[in-house]
Amino acid sequence: MSESVHNRIALLRAEQGVSRRELASALGVHYQTVGYLERGENSPSLDLALRIAEFFGVPVEAVFSLRPFPRISDQSGHSA
């Protein structure tokens, strides 16, 4: 059984105007690590997942899920 962890890191970065390098620096990881996480090529440790959620000021469940997140277009309330 292969488990993949889905995430919203790229979406949160875009919403908050944070680059991969800025996020990586704040977390103390290499910027490529952020890319691997965003693409689902790597799953974060619990410690890193909690630090990412804390960085964005959201619950860890808002960043990571075992199931795919609904697409933004499927959610109501668009902001322009």
Description:
The structure is a single chain. The chain is mainly alpha-helical and 80 residues long. 49% of the residues lie in helices and 5% in strands. The protein has 5 helices and 2 strands. It has helices spanning 9-16, 20-27, 31-38, 46-56, 60-63, and strands spanning 6-7, 64-65. It has a two-stranded antiparallel ribbon with strand order 1-2. Helix 2 crosses helix 3. The radius of gyration is 13 Å and the shape is globular. The relative contact order is 0.20. The mean pLDDT is 88.
Write the layout of secondary structure elements.
Layout: E1 6-7, H1 9-16, H2 20-27, H3 31-38, H4 46-56, H5 60-63, E2 64-65
Antiparallel strand pairs: 1-2
Helix pairs in contact: 2-3
Structure keywords:
single chain, 80 residues, mainly alpha, two-stranded antiparallel ribbon
Quaternary: single chain
**In which order are the strands of the major sheet placed?**
1-2
Taken from the alpha-carbon principal axes, the silhouette is globular
The number of distinct helices, counting runs of at least 4 residues, comes to: 5
Mean pLDDT: 88
**From N to C, what is the helix and strand string?**
EHHHHHE
Structural class: mainly alpha
Radius of gyration: 13 Å
Work out the strand percent: 5-15%
What share of residues is helical? 40-55%
Q: What is the CA–CA distance across the termini?
A: 41 Å
Q: pLDDT below 50 for ≥5 consecutive residues: which ranges? A: none
**Biggest beta sheet summary:** 2 strands, antiparallel
What is the strand tally? 2
